[in-house]
Protein: Ethanolamine utilization protein EutP
Organism: Lentilactobacillus fungorum
Amino acid sequence: MKKAIFIGAIGCGKTTLIQRLDKLKLTYNKTQTLEFYSNIIDTPGEYVEHRAMYSNLMTSAIDADVVVLMQSATDPRVVLPTGFSTMFTKPTVGIVTKIDVATPKQINLVNDRLKDAGASQVFQVSAVTGKNVAKFTKYLQS
């Protein structure tokens, strides 16, 4: 299985998706520091929301096989700037989260934002309902 680093804003659903992938009980936990799961590195949202912390992301991604950029479909902000993925030397994919509570227009907007940030492929998932989680799991296993 590919080792992934999850990068995204505060509250975008990184930890919830990890809990779903690892078949753990879904509980809200605010990630305060780097957390390591089976094959996933969970980063605090502050690392992406404060440019001064970008170096933490670059350093943390060294051990990963793939960079996973994540953004909630309900968050219309430009969280990840154009070409964000160029700071990494790893393949980069995107995940639009919270598709169960978003409109198609919101999902498409965030999908385009992730592509603009450098995601070569984008998955649209709901960690709460499990929708499309198997597709992402298959990607990690390939």
